[in-house]
Design a protein that fits this description.
210 residues; alpha+beta; five-stranded mixed sheet; elongated
Length: 210
């Protein structure tokens, strides 16, 4: 009986050790799997953040291009002798309307509503091509590829608010001129990625221009 019980004990120990090793191995496999899943999630989040940042940068560059395009528009665009260019004449407020003009030469030209009223850039639908905004290049002839690959989903747009018109009787040496507020929106590769920028631009009379 002792020999038999001894043999029984010698056979039962390896079985208990084998079971413990299996549990340890399973725990290690679970831990390695958890680490792998965490690493994969971190890599995906980093890739998503990089993609979103690239999209934002594309929208930012498009908005900056729209600001520059609006400045060229104010300075006469593709035809300094056009009816559109005449609306930016020094001392003139013609063509600038409440709610921004929506068609023809008045497109995107907004009057400053003054105190107590929301400015045009807060009420205008900048992201809509059907709204009273100006598409990039509409009055300057500039072009911007869009709608494919790593390009903006659509061309940027802008509006121009007349902020200040100088009074009469200025001295010749005064560097006065109309002051405009430009609000531009740029789009990323995805249309819902949008960046809005603003700038103030003073157009000097020709005699005072540097």
């Amino acid at each position: 009986m002792r020999a038999g019980s001894g043999v029984w004990r010698q056979r039962s120990r390896p079985r208990r050790q084998g079971g413990a090793a299996l549990i340890i191995a399973l725990c290690m496999m679970v831990a390695v799997l958890a680490i792998g899943v965490s690493a994969a999630q971190s890599a995906l989040n980093a890739e998503k953040s990089a993609r979103n940042e690239r999209d934002r940068q594309i929208a930012l560059q498009a908005a900056e291009a729209a600001l520059a395009d609006a400045e060229r528009d104010i300075e006469g665009g593709s035809d300094p002798a056009s009816a559109r260019a005449a609306l930016f004449a020094p001392g003139s407020a013609l063509g600038f309307v409440e709610g921004c003009g929506g068609r023809g030469d008045q497109a995107g030209l907004c009057v400053n509503s003054g105190s107590g009223a929301a400015p045009a850039w807060q009420t205008a639908r900048l992201d809509s091509a059907a709204a009273n905004t100006v598409a990039f290049g509409a009055f300057t002839g500039a072009s911007m590829p869009a709608g494919r690959g790593a390009l903006p989903a659509q061309p940027p747009r802008y509006i121009i608010e007349l902020m200040h018109v100088p009074g009469a009787g200025l001295d010749a040496g005064e560097r006065e001129g109309n002051v405009y507020r430009i609000t531009a929106i740029g789009f990323g590769m995805r249309a819902h990625t949008q960046v809005v920028l603003q700038s103030l631009y003073r157009k000097l009379p020709v005699a005072l221009a540097p």
